[in-house]
Predict the structure.
Amino acid sequence: MATDAEIEEDLSPAAPEPLRHVWPAVEMLVFGTIGLVAAFVLSVDALILAENPNAIFSCDINTKISCGTVGTSWQAELLGFPNSFLGLMAEPVVITVAVALLGWGGRVLFPRWFMLAAQGVYSIGLVFAFWLFHQSYYEIGALCPWCLTVTATTLLVWMSLTRINLLEGNFGAGLQRVTATPLRVYKADILISVLILAIMAVMVIVGYL
């Protein structure tokens, strides 16, 4: 486990550019990979449900925890195809960006316009993920473990991407002062992430377990 001093050194604005992104890039790589696995499983399940809507999956624990119930809802294909296909397209991009930021194969640093575009697109994805959580919780009346995994990883990747943009000052001079204390940024987004995930966990436990 890295110490605060080690993290602060890596995140410091004075550190070499690629080094500053080590921790958030590692997080993007790990959570993006987990999200990709979850999206792949959901995509396979969607194809099975298309052939047999009554198919039973290992995550169909009961009427409240059921991938099949969520997968056969209209919300699962909001754009006319399984939502998980979006994850199959988005997560490889996340993984590629993370690997590039880690410096494998050339120590790539992306231009401001690219990082802001990535932030914007992933922000839409985050809103979409939480909308699906809301729909599952309040409208469908069932939760899918793999969908919950996607929601969690989307949040964590978004937090890491936001931290990179903060450290780079990509949000403009108005937020530039935030990067003067990178360790606080690091701790703040961990605290916010844990708080949101804890709230979700309590909601699941209280409402569905």
Remarks:
- The chain has a mean pLDDT of 85.
